[in-house]
Prior knowledge:
This protein is an alpha+beta fold. It has a single domain (13-128, 143-196), classed as q2cbj1_9rhob like domain (Jelly Rolls), CATH 2.60.120. The chain is 16% helix and 29% strand. The protein has helices at residues 21-32, 58-79; strands at 13-15, 38-39, 46-48, 85-95, 101-104, 111-116, 127-129, 155-157, 166-170, 174-177, 185-194, 196-199, 202-205. The strands form 3 sheets. A 7-stranded antiparallel beta sheet has the order 1-9-6-11-4-3-2. Strands 5-10-7-8 form a 4-stranded antiparallel beta sheet, with no helix packed on it. The longest helix is centred in the N-terminal third of the chain and has 22 residues, at 58-79. The N and C termini lie far apart (54 Å). The mean pLDDT is 94.
Amino acid sequence: MDQLIGLFPTPFLSCTGLLDAAEAAELAAWLRMQSDQVPNSRSDRLTHSAPLRLDGHPLLAMLAERLAPRLVALGEQMFGAALDWSIKELWGNRMAPGGSQGVHRHANSFISGVVYVTTSDASARTVFLRGLGGNDFAFSHAGPGVEVTAFNADRWVAPAGDAGDAVLFPSYLLHEVPANAGGERLTLAFNAIPAQLASWDYAIRFSTGRSS
């Protein structure tokens, strides 16, 4: 009997309806009022808010509460134990039609995520990429008739996010957002860290570095 086994899969958590329609609409209106928008370095149709405090709006505090058990669940798949997680930073993203986000990963964190505050157009679905570069020669087999599978794919396009949905993923995953051919795309992005990681008799402790 032959059995195909997928070794070392990457955990990815999709959360449908984390916010209801009214909550998402209220949060979208509040995000549009934030005046401290920082232009993206690659796209003049994308801006980012300054870091948001979880106590800056009741919905942000509620969002953190709803994310908490999901962080624990994803972290348990990554590290094998139910750890104490905290969101170390949270910020808003406002993408106008024609905006995009270049390939990047999130540093100094272990779990990152995106909360879709407005429904994302299908053209602007988040794309996750296999690691770029390396020190080895690479060979590929591509072209007509070649089937893309989970084992040979270079990219994976996440489902289109409806208002109130969220996705969580390991912070090392490269990702981007292609050019937005739809309307305004509002999201919240966040990074999370555990209180500590321990290996037998040695532990590394982490701190958010600020009051949240």
